[in-house]
Amino acid sequence: MIGTIRWNIVIGGFSFIFTFMLSFANNVFSTALVRSFLSGLILFFIIFLFRWIMGTIIFPSSIIENDMGKKIDFVTPDESIEIHQLMRTDSETAADEPSFAPLNPPKLVSKHNMDPEEMVKALRHMSED
Questions:
Q1: How far apart are CA 118 and CA 24, in angstroms?
Q2: 127, 129, 15: which is closest to 7 by C-alpha?
Q3: Contact 8/48 with Cβ under 8 angstroms?
Q4: 74-113 residue pLDDT tens
Q5: What is the b/e burial string over 59-68, where b = at least 16 CB atoms within 10 angstroms of the residue's CB?
Q6: What residue spans of 1-129 are helical by DSSP H?
Q7: Rounded Cα distance, 60 and 51, in Å
Q8: Cα dist. 50→8, 44, 46, 57, 68 in Å?
Q9: Tell me, what's the pLDDT at 64?
Q10: Interior CA angle at 95 toward 89 and 99, to 5°?
Q11: Measured between alpha carbons, how far is 72 from 122 in angstroms, rounded to an integer?
């Protein structure tokens, strides 16, 4: 197809507006609206047909033909030598590095025997917000 869908939308929109302006003076609002909508829709599809005819029948040489995306290469290159070299270098560098040591974060401690006055003070402070 030649062009984009914008052509269809713009020409269909102009057809809608033009038909609505002409039929609004002689018809009821709903009738004018329906007829203009149908006019825009019909012209939208006619432009699609026109673009298809122009793209496939009249100007087929303007479409660039290439084989990209039409054939699939199912053969993967042999990379086993490169993989073995990577594995060797990884194992050599792992021997030089220190072993893994996980983090030891401090544990949370809860206070079981709190002073009631401190609890009331904290409650009052929280209720002020």
A1: 79
A2: 15
A3: yes
A4: 777 788 888 888 877 765 665 556 677 788 888 877 777 7
A5: eeeeeeeeee
A6: 5-24, 29-53, 80-96, 116-127
A7: 12
A8: 10, 10, 6, 10, 28
A9: 54
A10: 130
A11: 70
Say how far apart CA 126 and CA 129 lie, in whole Å. 6
Handedness of CA 48, 51, 53, 56 (dihedral sign): negative
pLDDT tens sequence across 13-49: 999 999 999 998 888 999 999 999 999 999 999 998 9
The encoded tokens of residue 8 equal 């269809």
Q: What length does the chain have?
A: 129
